[in-house]
Amino acid sequence: MNGYLVSTLSGALLFSKFHVRKGVLDADDVSNFPTSLRRLMTLCTMLAFVGMAWMSLAVGLLKLTEG
Questions:
Q1: Which residues of 37-66 are buried (b: 16+ CB within 10 A; e: fewer)?
Q2: Contact 27, 20 (CB under 8 A)
Q3: What is residue 14's predicted lDDT score, i.e. its pLDDT?
Q4: Closest CA to 45 of 12, 19, 22, 18
Q5: 3-class secondary-structure state, position 14
Q6: Are 8 and 39 within 8 A, CB to CB?
Q7: What pLDDT is stored for residue 32 in this prediction?
Q8: For residue 18, how many other CB atoms are within 10 A of its CB?
Q9: pLDDT tens across the length of the chain (67 residues)
Q10: How far apart are CA 21 and CA 43, in angstroms?
């Protein structure tokens, strides 16, 4: 449950302008969020995306070499 919450908050912070426009986040809350924690959460989310892309590439290459 905690991992889901952290992932959701990280994604919301990564695309904060979009979520503020939608009304999900408050602009004051986003600006008052600690910058060091925001940077770490953004980095973790980006690394998760990069890892998912590498895994997708590896699965695709494995499927091509099975032939």
A1: ebeebeeebeeeeeeeeeeeeeeeeeeeee
A2: yes
A3: 84
A4: 12
A5: helix
A6: no
A7: 93
A8: 11
A9: 677 888 888 888 888 899 999 998 899 998 999 999 989 888 888 888 899 999 999 999 999 998 6
A10: 23
The neighbour count for residue 26, using CB atoms within 10 Å, is 11
Helix (H) or strand (E) holding 33, with range, is: none
Domain boundaries, the chain: 2-66
**7 CB-side CA count, 13 A:** 7
**Token code pair at residue 32:** 């008052």
pTM to 2 decimal places? 0.68
Task: Look up tokens 């699965």; give the residue.
Answer: 59
Residue 13 in contact with residue 38, Cβ under 8 Å? yes
Tell me the two tokens of residue 17: 């302008």
